[in-house]
Amino acid sequence: MARDRSSAVVAVGETAYPPGMNLKLSRPLAVFDIESTGTNWERDRIIDLAIVRLDPDGTQTTVVFRFNPGMPIPPAATAVHGIRDEDVRDAPFFSARMADVARAFENCDLAGFNIWRFDVPMLQQEFKRGGSTFDMAGRKMIDAQRIYHQREKRDLTAAVLFYCGESHEGAHGARADAEATLRVIERQLDRYPDLPREVAPLDRFCFPPVADGVDREGKIRWDAEGDMVMGFGKYQGAKLRTMAADRDNRKYLEWMLRQSFGQQVDGLIRLALEGKLPRRTEWTPPAAGE
Got the DSSP string for 196-249? Predict the structure, then answer.
């Protein structure tokens, strides 16, 4: 399909996904991938967004969006995905097609490769810039990278070779990566018969509950006194409230924000730095999927 400059849609197609598919769907699943100006989800912008939507009735719909990021594309990013400033000069900004993107994800659980640490926060930040939200409440997630790293410990290109026995042509193109991720998930389910076939238990496999964890990964935890403490690193067990009140330890929390440990952890660190950190008895956990 030729590029539609007015709608940002680069390609769209609808097919029936293969019979005998291992994933058992009770609601739509959006397998997606993002190419961007860089890896900092707070600062960088989306250039390409590809969504492979699977519906329980067997329909598979692929939509690819291209956007003008509103900033120069660094050469290092172009070296990865091949997209240059001139390629997106006439494309719309993300905010202009935010409603179309929201519709593509409507009522969907999510799947992808490293989406929890990168793609989901990137989407949420773009929606925030546009004055809206990308609502994660109730969404389940399958992260093929987390399955892969728990079983094999490599990246998407190696995963395609390992699970599918093929080279990953078009690596770091959003559509090619999203479609490759779907193939990898299917082969993972073939290879590991003990893996669950439904999205909710796969979400729990990708993100197993952490004892006393505040965030999904347990980077921040509750201590016996009901305070949030560091769950890893040299300050493991240290109260965030106490760290924020100490000049030197506060610098470490500020360093964590610059490294981006994910949106949940970043939000908690900001609350600590602002002196607004709740105790466990005051804490309202995020809705499922947030």
Answer: -SBHHHHHHHHS---TTBSSTT-SEEE-TTS-EEE-SSTTTT-BHHHHHHSHHH
Closest CA to 23 of 148, 203, 276: 203
- Which tokens go with 86? 């001139």
What length does the chain have? Answer: 290
- Section 3-28 average pLDDT: 67
Distance between CA atoms of 124 and 144, rounded to whole angstroms? 20
Q: Determine what percent of the chain is predicted with pLDDT higher than 70.
A: 90
Q: Which two tokens stand for residue 22?
A: 């291992």
Q: Are 44 and 38 in contact (CB under 8 A)?
A: yes
Half-sphere exposure of residue 111: CA atoms within 13 angstroms, side-chain side: 27
Non-local CB neighbours of 99 within 8 Å, separated by 6+ positions: none
Please check whether residue 289 is in contact with residue 138, taking contact to mean a CB–CB distance below 8 angstroms: yes
Within 10 Å of residue 45's Cβ, how many Cβ atoms?
22
Distances (CA, A) of 244 to 130, 190, 196, 222, 283: 31, 48, 41, 16, 19
Q: Does domain 9-206 have CATH number 3.50.50.60?
A: no
Return the closest-CA partner of residue 85 out of 50, 47, 123, 122.
Answer: 47
* DSSP label of 9: E
Quote the pLDDT of residue 5: 40
Strand partners, 9: 65
Strands 109-112 and 29-36: parallel
For residue 103, give the 3-state DSSP assignment. Answer: helix
Is residue 203's pLDDT more than 60?
A: yes
Tell me the torsion sign for CA atoms 131, 137, 141, 30: negative
Domain(s) labelled CATH 3.30.420.10 in the chain stretch across: 9-206
pLDDT category at 197 given cuts 50, 70, 90 is very high
pTM above 0.70, yes or no: no
